[in-house]
Write a structure and sequence with these properties.
Elements (H helix, E strand, L loop, with lengths): L17 E5 L6 E6 L9 H12 L4 H8 L3 H14 L12 H9 L5 H10 L3
Antiparallel strand pairs: 1-2
Helix pairs in contact: 2-3, 4-5
Length: 123
C-alpha cells in the first residue's frame, strides 16, 4: 500500500526533503536531493478542488455545479490554493492611462512621474 507523500515533518512541521528514490521492479536506488512540485504542498481537499477546476476547464459556474458550492466559496477556495502555492491573491489596480496623460498635459505631474505611473501598470 502506498501512502501519500509527506511534505512537512510530523515532529517540527518544517519542509521535508526527498532524498531517496527506488524502483519497485529492479530495486535500483537513487539517493540525492529531489525537488517536488508546489502542488505537492496542497492538502487532499485542495488537490481534489484543483482536479475539479481543471476538469471544468476553469469555468467557475461548472465548478459550482460539480461541487454544489456557491460562487464566493469557489473564489475563496481558489484564493486559498493560490496563497498555498506562494502567490499573491491581491489584484493590482488598473492604471488609467488616459488620466495619466491628462495630468501630464495639464502640467500636474512631470514626465518622469507619468512614466513611473505607467510602468506600475506593466508589472
Amino acid at each position: 500500500m502506498a501512502y501519500p507523500l509527506l511534505t512537512n515533518c510530523p515532529v517540527c512541521s518544517k519542509a521535508l526533503k526527498i532524498t531517496k528514490l527506488q524502483c519497485n521492479h529492479c530495486q535500483t536506488t537513487i539517493e540525492n536531493e529531489f525537488e517536488v512540485s508546489k502542488l505537492a504542498a496542497l492538502g487532499q481537499e485542495q488537490l481534489h478542488f484543483v482536479e475539479i477546476f481543471l476538469k471544468c476547464r476553469g469555468n467557475i459556474k461548472e465548478v459550482e455545479k460539480e461541487l454544489g458550492i456557491s460562487y464566493p466559496t469557489v473564489r475563496g477556495k481558489l484564493d486559498e490554493i493560490i496563497s498555498a502555492l506562494g502567490y499573491s491573491t491581491h489584484k493590482k489596480p488598473e492604471v488609467d492611462k488616459k488620466k495619466i496623460v491628462s495630468l501630464l498635459e495639464k502640467g500636474e505631474i512631470t514626465a518622469e512621474k507619468a512614466i513611473e505611473l505607467l510602468k506600475e501598470g506593466e508589472d
